[in-house]
């Protein structure tokens, strides 16, 4: 048990435990609609996707899994989205035991809260936002689905709750075979889902700033400013690019009216950032749209939230470094603040490791299948960044490739947390430094 005393190792261990329990639950005959046992790889893949809040699936969630199976999936992405340690600490609070220093550190590690935030305060914020957002979105969706789509009260309520929790946790799971394509002309369905995804993709430190400092922008932390501005820029980029590139595509936005085009372009600019719902056929996207989606998925959302990817702040730091070099500035920074060299190294390390992992997975899958390279790359980035969007090749992958996707989903969910934390915590420095010598770059 020595390994579990280290919070950096504890987080992956608990995620693995959750995935294992989820796999067992989904392997039970009661979990499938026809009462048969799901194949082990199908159960493992679905469990990893749910705990990793990804949304990639091998089978249709709404028809393959029973009510028990769907409830298990919902529970898994609810736990995975909030974080194993967040839930564990809450259970400790409910049980009446105090918060030890180790509890606080561990919870902060999982939430990437390595600054001064108190674990208990963060927990209260997380759960109050979760209850408020999920309840509000669930009510809106349930009422709309029941009133406009002929669903019974029970079915509408379940679909509302499932999609609300999936949106809040950026999971992208849907009980519909075509995700949200059936609602592409309905802003009452798409807008609440989109707003829930944007909010939680900002990350809880930003929410904490918004709660404590409201719109007093000057008092926001540098992290919050970088996240909000970076998110806004990426959303605008995605919206404009998708609208321009898919405007005349007969398989996506082409047949829609102007209002629906704007609505779906906005929706699809949000989803590649982390969520995985789709209101149009992603497999019908033009190559240039896929290229923009690669970038949006790889960057992902805000740190210390339910989003995946390398994170917005990582991208912002790298952008600022490049900008400072181009302008000949001595230090890289934003908003009259400079970054520490350790932050720059962390951002570079996370990005290079992520790109290397995606490249290796894409190369392997391309070598054992005849699937189109753009589709394979899309699938690998989507898995690593826990997005869940797919061009439709997930179920066509051979078993070994599906195992690779499982590994990408797991590493993408807990690997970046672990690496970033290990880098932030740091290691004892050497009592000496080697002589300096430069080499030619570029």
From TrEMBL:
GO MF annotation, one: monoatomic cation transmembrane transporter activity
Keyword match Ion transport: yes
Keyword terms of this UniProt record: Cell membrane, Ion transport, Membrane, Transmembrane, Transmembrane helix, Transport
Record-annotated membrane-spanning stretches: 43-59, 71-99, 119-142, 188-206, 226-245, 294-327, 347-368, 403-426
Membrane topology value: Multi-pass membrane protein
GO cellular component labels: plasma membrane
GO BP terms, alphabetized: metal ion transport
Pfam families: TrkH
InterPro entries, sorted: Cat_transpt
Source taxon at top rank: Bacteria
Main location: membrane
Compartments, record wording: Cell membrane
Name of the protein in its database record: Cation transporter
